[in-house]
Structures are given as C-alpha cells and as structure tokens.
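// run 5 | inverse folding | seed 20
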C-alpha cells in the first residue's frame, strides 16, 4: 500500500487530514506543497486543479477536498470509527464541520491567529483592525458551536468524531492567542472539550510549530 498526503505543513486542512490518519493509526508519506510559494507545480495541479491543499493519493486513487479525504480515510482503513452510527449524531457532525468551514476558519485562523500570533512571531505587526474583526466574528462562531456541542465527552457524543478533528485543528491555532483563549474560556462546553482534545496524542504529533 502507498499512501501520500500532499500539502503545506502549516495548513489547518492538511493537519485535519493528518489528525484523521493519526486517530486511525494509518501510515503515510507527506509531500510538501506550498500553495503560497509562487507557481504551483503542474504535477500537483494534476491532482488538485484548484491548487489548494491537501490532496491524497492512495494506491493511485487521487482525492482532494478535506471533507472527502477524512471520510475516505475513516471508511478505507481499520481502527476506531470516526463517524457516528446514529443518524442524528452523524448529521450534527456534518453540521459542525460545515459551520467550521464556512464561518470559523477565516476569523479564528486567518484573522486572530495570523494577526495576533504569527505576525508578531515573525517580527511584523499584525493588523489591529483585522484582529478586532476576527475576535468579534469568532465570538459569534463560538457561541454557535457551544450551542451545538453535545453534553457528552466529544462534540457529537461520547465518541470522538471527525467534527472534533475539524474544529480541533483550528482551535489549536486560535488558542495560541491570549485573547482567543479568553473567548474560548467563557464557553464551558467548548472549554471542557478543548481540555480533552488538547491531550490527544495525534494533536501533538501533527503540531507544525509556527512559521519562521
């Protein structure tokens, strides 16, 4: 078996796919592709015509779009199921993943994390206007997720699901901002969930660090 994950090491979506493979215990090779570094290689565009990351190749079968990749990983490989069997819990998983993609990624990662963590780390000033916009939008998103989160151990119930990995990769960045962590900390369900999620071995194993 040959399994290759193509993508940028700092990408949240690449990390989501890596988290799924870590939870399933799947071995793979990672191929670095930086979609921000000028011209994208033609060989990669053959895998992903839109030039985004990640893309997966499994024994010659190519797949892109993170949601499709993680569902395929769960179905194609043995290990703990990452999708609930219960219809309503499965629907909640899909809903949370959709909310995270549509409403959480930009404010949590591209605004709060980038402007409050990454830019100061590399020695450039973050944009305070973008940061404030991100924090305001993040509060609304976190409120929605707090109301959707199950009262059980994980977001959709007693067992870890793809929803936890999807949100976990983004909160891992967002919570590095002091102000982001404060926003998270006033939402009890998400706070308790993050305390558990932060202890998953896969989260440490897939930590890309900060860009230099």
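// decoded
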């Amino acid at each position: 078996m040959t399994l290759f994950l193509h993508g940028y090491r700092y990408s949240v979506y690449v990390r989501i796919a890596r988290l799924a493979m870590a939870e399933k215990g799947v071995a793979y090779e990672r191929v670095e592709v930086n979609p921000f570094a000028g011209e994208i290689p033609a060989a990669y565009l053959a895998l992903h015509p839109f030039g985004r990351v990640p893309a997966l190749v499994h024994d010659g079968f190519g797949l892109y779009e993170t949601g499709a990749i993680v569902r395929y990983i769960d179905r194609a490989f043995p290990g703990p199921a990452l999708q609930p069997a219960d219809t309503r819990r499965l629907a909640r998983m899909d809903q949370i993943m959709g909310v995270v993609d549509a409403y959480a990624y930009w404010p949590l990662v591209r605004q709060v994390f980038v402007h409050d963590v990454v830019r100061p780390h590399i020695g450039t000033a973050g944009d305070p206007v973008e940061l404030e916009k991100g924090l305001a939008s993040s509060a609304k998103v976190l409120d929605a997720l707090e109301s959707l989160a199950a009262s059980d151990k994980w977001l959709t119930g007693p067992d870890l699901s793809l929803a936890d990995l999807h949100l976990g990769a983004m909160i891992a960045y967002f919570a590095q901002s002091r102000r982001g962590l404060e926003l998270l900390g006033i939402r009890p369900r998400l706070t308790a969930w993050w305390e558990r999620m932060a202890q998953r071995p896969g989260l440490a194993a897939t930590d890309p660090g900060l860009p230099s």
